[in-house]
Amino acid sequence: MVTFIADCMLGKLAKWLRILGFDVLYFSKIEDSELVRIAGRDGRVLLTRDTKLAGRARTVRTLLIESEKWEDQVRQVLDVFSLRDEAAPNSLCIACNLPLKSIPRERAMNLVVPFVLERGRAFALCPGCGRVFWKGTHFEDMEGRIESLLGRKNRKAGPG
Ligand SMILES: [Zn+2]
To answer: How many angstroms does the Cα of residue 18 sit away from the middle of ligand 1?
Structure first.
């Protein structure tokens, strides 16, 4: 599966690609040369809004992001790499970019507040930062956005 590294201007794009389950490295501060080096080392596609950087980064695969709107940016990446069917929403930690591990409700019990435990349908733990993620009514808003980005309905993916 294709993996990415996003430039400093693309924080929201990086976050949403992670929400959709795609491996994206993102640093809020990083030198252009370092972005290119990591992209080359890991075989990641460099996502950038910087035409100069895109021009200079000839040794790595680069996608010049066209829109200023994050929704359109996400759609551009999904379109270019035909990723709509590869998406696995809520399978990666938004903070660490690491795969989440599904955990049973009993284990989540000690890790989340009762409100969440009551409403959560499925729980997952990040092995990096220890955060617990859950699906529930609370997040229908986000799920609606995910569906709209992917242009599909009633499909389940990710933990649970
Ligand atoms: Zn994490």
So the answer is: 11
